[in-house]
């Protein structure tokens, strides 16, 4: 196995398998219709399982939203979420009193740690045209020593996220969005302080790569310690070393080898996830990720007792003022506006 460049190839849908230290990745690509003035959806919702609509009917899902698509308040403990909104906007609210609106390339890094409730809603701000949304949510595990860290979140605004622009030998463009993990000499923005990614020796990398038609990208080699997966999620075809696919796929690749990636004849998008595995037992039930069944039972008991601070907002499907721009309000009162 060590001599192989590609260990395995697998087709993917909206929910992507991951390797330790990652737990889960969801890719949401929606074309929502125009919204009403209250940012709710303007078309009838008959034929959907409202409250749990993952149907993709007519090009979109409501998820757990009833009038506004998204994920009304729900708890997390024991891991962190990295939410990349490439297109559209997301409204964040949580049990600490934090809030925000982010999108169009922004990234939110949230360490749930000991426990937090939050909501992630997709306000339909456009009333005259469609409201497209593209979002990734990546679940990154925490080691036992940090599972009860104080919850926190940080905004990585798209204006600040490093972009590496390269050309291949034929002059084709390669664009690498460095969300986590240095790419060559280009360092990323810092994650939250208790993140597994905050220690650079854990070699966590999250790179979104755009290849122009026919571009050839050489993925540099790294340490044998890391798990490394490349996800092809948009484009008509891609060739990774000698493996050619024409549908969305993941490539589990050897981190100690340079890997050649060739785009098809359209713009091609891939996401790379890598990191040193935590190598601890994983006990997961829904929104809680701990190390044992007993810790899971304690997490449920704690949530029933404390609701992780309760819900300080007046709506489960919490969205912010329609005219509000991108912002982040932190629990300590610090306000960022963009």
Automatic annotation (TrEMBL):
Cofactor: record remark: Binds 1 Fe cation per subunit.
Span of domain Pirin C-terminal: 208-309
Alphabetized Pfam families for the sequence: Pirin (PF02678), Pirin_C (PF05726)
Keywords carried by this UniProt record: Iron, Metal-binding
Sections of the chain in a coiled coil: none
Binding-site residues, Fe cation: 74, 76, 118, 120
GO MF term list: metal ion binding
Domain of life: Bacteria
Cofactor requirements of the protein: Fe cation
All copies of domain Pirin N-terminal, residue ranges: 57-140
Keyword Thylakoid: no
Family affiliation: Belongs to the pirin family.
Protein's name according to its UniProt entry: Pirin family protein
Organism, as annotated: Flammeovirga aprica JL-4
Lineage, broadest ranks: Bacteria, Pseudomonadati, Bacteroidota, Cytophagia, Cytophagales
């Amino acid at each position: 196995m060590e001599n192989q460049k590609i260990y395995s190839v697998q087709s993917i849908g909206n929910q992507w398998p991951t390797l330790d230290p990652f737990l889960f990745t969801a890719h949401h690509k929606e074309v929502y219709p125009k919204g009403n003035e209250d940012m709710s959806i303007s078309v009838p919702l008959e034929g959907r399982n409202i409250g749990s609509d993952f149907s993709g009917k007519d090009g979109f899902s409501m998820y757990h939203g009833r009038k506004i698509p998204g994920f009304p308040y729900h708890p997390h403990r024991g891991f962190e979420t990295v939410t990349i909104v490439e297109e559209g906007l997301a409204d964040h609210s949580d049990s600490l009193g934090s809030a925000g609106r982010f999108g169009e390339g922004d990234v939110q890094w949230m360490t749930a740690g000991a426990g937090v409730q939050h909501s992630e809603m997709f306000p339909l701000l456009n009333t005259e045209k469609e409201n497209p949304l593209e979002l990734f949510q990546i679940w990154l595990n925490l080691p036992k020593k940090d599972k009860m860290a104080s919850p926190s979140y940080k905004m990585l605004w798209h204006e600040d996220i490093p972009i590496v622009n390269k050309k291949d030998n034929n002059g084709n463009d390669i664009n690498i969005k460095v969300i986590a993990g240095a790419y060559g000499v280009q360092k990323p923005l810092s994650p939250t302080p208790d993140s597994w990614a905050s220690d650079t020796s854990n070699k966590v990398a999250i790179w979104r790569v755009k290849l122009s038609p026919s571009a050839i990208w050489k993925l540099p080699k790294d340490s044998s310690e890391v798990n490394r997966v490349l996800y092809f999620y948009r484009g008509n075809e891609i060739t990774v070393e000698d493996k050619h696919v024409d549908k969305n796929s993941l490539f589990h690749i050897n981190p100690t080898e340079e890997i050649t990636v060739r785009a098809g004849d359209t713009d091609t998008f891939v996401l790379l996830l890598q990191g040193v595995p935590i190598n601890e037992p994983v006990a997961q039930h829904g929104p809680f990720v701990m190390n044992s069944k007993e810790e899971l039972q304690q997490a449920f008991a704690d949530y029933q007792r404390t609701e992780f601070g309760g819900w300080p907002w007046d709506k489960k499907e919490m969205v912010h003022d329609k005219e509000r721009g991108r912002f982040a309000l932190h629990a300590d009162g610090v306000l960022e506006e963009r």
